[in-house]
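Hi team,

Filling in the usual template for the complex we talked about on Friday. All components are listed, including any nucleic acid strands or ligand strings, so the model treats them as one assembly.

SUBMITTER: L.P.
PURPOSE: interface mapping
COMPONENTS: four
RESIDUES: 428
SEQUENCES:
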Amino acid sequence: MVKDQATEELIKEKAKVLFFQKGFLDATTQEIADEAKVNRALIHYYFRSREQLMDVILEEVVSRKRARAKAIFSSSLAFREKIATYINVIVDQGLLFPYLENFIISETARDPERANFLCSPARTKTTDLIRDDLALEIKTGKLGPMTAEHFMINLSSMCNYPFLAKSILKSVHGMTDQSYRKFLQDRKQIIYRAIFNEEMPEVQLTPELKSILS
Amino acid sequence: MVKDQATEELIKEKAKVLFFQKGFLDATTQEIADEAKVNRALIHYYFRSREQLMDVILEEVVSRKRARAKAIFSSSLAFREKIATYINVIVDQGLLFPYLENFIISETARDPERANFLCSPARTKTTDLIRDDLALEIKTGKLGPMTAEHFMINLSSMCNYPFLAKSILKSVHGMTDQSYRKFLQDRKQIIYRAIFNEEMPEVQLTPELKSILS
DNA sequence: GACGCGTTTAACAATTTTGTTAAACAAAAA
DNA sequence: TTTTTGTTTAACAAAATTGTTAAACGCGTC
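RESULT (copied from the run log):
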């Protein structure tokens, strides 16, 4: 026999619900166990320690994020379509898992070592995948001069920050949950136009790409 | 007699060092006491509970942030100079207190109630202070159409996110502490150009404004 | 049915962390 | 000098949280 894949997966899934959807970023092992309706000791049985459970979850979610980005940026889409798709995917994911970015940010801030082995510079970087396209945009004067790094960080800043600062934004601008969601939908257009100063195009995704991003 | 202002202040100051500069976002009362070289019970004597100490610190730092923004955006500077100044101030503050944003984000995420009484929509909002200027920029075609809210959030996203994601950015792009600081300095120009698509102007601050922002 | 094996549970132990309190201390007031 | 008031300390208590363990359980196999 092997370890019960189902239970192990259940624990991870329910922990993710707590972290990414309910926003209990410092949920205790007991709270995780409760959410999964299992005995707390099982968490230690399958993951040894709370720390290791966190590591597994962090690794999974960062991998997935990276896989998505890679799929988009190495697809056959036109450059601006890639960006449009990226914006759509990030914002949609944010709406689905509102605290996922908070989790990543807070875990990597708590222990920067984690970031190192999660995103070693040796990996395929999205910045490398867009460098040529970006250079062309800049050369033809369609975009101001900047490195691929700055470009990607501008992009992900505008996509992610509104989720990180959710409570503040909601209260400063007096938004309800509903108007906040509407606001985030609008941002897709806004972000694209902030970057390219033109309307965001409709993008047809290949079924293959669609499935990777779902 | 009154409570010893000096000791109370010392505790707050040292707590801020831990939170904002050293990045120990979940420092215990003992660690705070150690940093301030005082007995842990003093923290309870002056602030009653850890929670209340956190509240006081959060309130102070958000107030100060808001005061700065208000000073800039109600100054006599030209609109684009205001933005240039804002970018400079935020990035410089970030370099000085690298984890300050992490603190605000994580505290307001942990308990959204806090955000409500920190930034009630009744207050003077920076968005209101730029609305007219922004409308003019848009009307004259210098800027794509967007609300003041989206504009401000684009701006603060690009200013703040790089600090929040510090560890990830450093490790993805293989930066040292030094090259990361250089990178952030460069961003001032980059952010300004991303918004206005032109070089950032030199701004002369009035001595009064200078002192508020120091 | 008894055995073996992975899974699950309840109970326990250890640690960490917060909060309380009584007493010591320092300095100004009486 | 004694008293009073506010400050600081050490010791204690209580709660929360993580990690361990021995026993119970379910189930397929001998």
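MY TAKE: Chain A has a mean pLDDT of 95. Residues 50-73 of chain A form the longest helix (24 residues).

Thanks, L.
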